[in-house]
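[Q] Does anyone have a clean structure-token version of this?
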Amino acid sequence: MYNTPFHTTDISKNSFLVTGGAGFIGSNIVEYLLKFNAGKVVVLDNLSTGFEENIKPYISSSNFKFINGDICNLGDCAKACEGISYIFHQAALGSVPRSIKNPLATNEVNVNGFLNMLVAARDKGVKRFVYASSSSVYGDSKQTPKTEENIGNALSPYAVSKRTNELYGNVFAHNYNMEIIGLRYFNIFGPRQNPKGEYAAAIPLFMDALLKNQSPYINGDGEQSRDFTFVENAVQANIKAMFASNKDALGQVYNIAVGEKISVNSLFNILKELSGTSVNAMHREDRVGDVRNSLADISKAKRLIGYEPQIKMQEGLKTTLNWFSKYFGYQPISK
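[A] Here you go.
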């Protein structure tokens, strides 16, 4: 992964902070930055949903620093922002079902923690702040494909928290003259995504089950559709947003996806073929708070930050399945 850079500037003298950098998307951003000789990369993570093993290869690097800290603690945020020019804010408490079960925890991390990071970034004079939002902000919007200016009513506390991030980002950009960009992720998947636990996402759950020759669950009838997006595309969006020179690109939120939709049933059948298994999925009740259909219009991100998704779903699934096979000690997939 990351064979060619998504940026054209020399980053060897730049300092970066990746919050949630031991997590799935955050650790992929860290990998990219260090591969292309970033001057300094700092990770702030409390390891509640991230894993130290995701950043273990970089611990001994002279230009890498890990801070075991919490974005809910303003002091930790201020410490992490010392001497930092650019922030990739990925730290969050994910999962719609988790937020419905515990809305207070979701609000504490995703809203209060986000505000702490904005304040720390402002006070430390950070040049640019790029943060992760979510397609969940579209809620009950019936528009297809989704365009950034048209959102619906939120369907979960998680969606509320991400929409609040966008509102705070806009307010801080306006009132404090900060360079802030938000990225609405659409169902990101790829290596290092955790298949374990109550709130694991569909693709890693499916892969884990199929590699064990077990039947996974599909929520509802499986005809709900998603714009599944390989993590390398999300990393590209972060890098291009961070170094976008177009002033019109600032103070905006962007859909980050591929611009293609597929049903969960079709996704499962592709994975079933790739893994060479014959097991079938089992269906259960719909998940409360889920959006029925999700497809992104990515023209704004293409126009203003130069985003061009390079990895289509099938290629991304194969790469991810091979990673899971190797990581968990299964037979590698060769198809």
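[Q] Thanks! Anything notable?
[A] The first strand starts at residue 15 and ends at 19.
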